Amino acid sequence: MKNKVHPTAIISKKSCLDKDVEVGPFCVIEPNVRIAKGTRIFNNVTIKGDTEIGENNTIFSGAVIGSMPQDLKYKGEKSLLRIGKNNIFREFVTVNSGTNGAVTAIGDNNLFMAYSHIAHDCKVGNDCIFANSATLGGHVHVESRVVMGGLSAVHQFVRIGKLAIVGGCSKVVQDVPPFSMCDGHPAKVYGLNSIGLKRAKISAKDIKQLKSALKIIFYSKLSIPNALKKIDKEIPNPCTGLKYLIDFMKITKRGISR
Q1: What percent of the chain has pLDDT over 90?
Q2: Pairing status of strand 187-192 against strand 180-184
Q3: Catalytic annotation on 138?
């Protein structure tokens, strides 16, 4: 099956589009772009840089994918953007490539609603939802199955743990633990993302352990190291999720949203 490319689209001969890729009117696809089969690109989309886009992605009108980093330290060196499969990029989404040879990486099955922004060197896992105008600063790591509320903004180098939910208009300046609900300006953790955990088919027993652990971390008035020691003593035989939460807390560099 041949590509379906609108005659007004400008596509570099040095780009590589797999079979049945659709490209709408007035799109620009620059050299070194590689797009896998099944991807559909609507009108007025620009795809730049050393960008690799996997299978069955959908990119809506006005999106700019792979543009150079908005970083004053960037001096034009080679940088990369890697996007997995089955992602949806709605209108006017912007995704920047990495810096200094590094990679901005997006996994599979994510939804980026209109005007959301993924900055340089970010890592986004799988099955995430970014509501309208959700914004990541550089070097942010968003793990899988995260929900970012509309107009939320994440500071550089912050980590958002898996199955966390960040409320709309939140200002996130420190790491958000896995499985938690976070909201505010600056953002604070308010409890366990129970609905998200149930949807992910986490067992009631594991949810109870995670809830107990978050209560110790955020309501015992202990420091993080002492709270983790208390969890070790009071919650025997920790489930896989609790072990993951503890490991996440131990390696924080920016501190934890509390």
Answers
A1: 95
A2: antiparallel
A3: yes
Q: Is the peptide bond before 186 cis (omega within 30 degrees of 0)?
A: yes
CATH topology of domain 197-250: Udp N-acetylglucosamine O-acyltransferase; Domain 2 (1.20.1180)
Distance CA 78, CA 123 (A): 18
Of 50, 71, 121, 175, catalytic: 121
Domain 4-139 superfamily per CATH = Hexapeptide repeat proteins (2.160.10.10)
Which one of 138, 161, 167, 241 is the catalytic residue?
138
Confidence band of 101 (pLDDT split at 50, 70, 90): confident
Matching residue, tokens 């901005």: 104
247 is catalytic: no
Q: Cα angle at 89 between 176 and 151, to 5 degrees?
A: 45
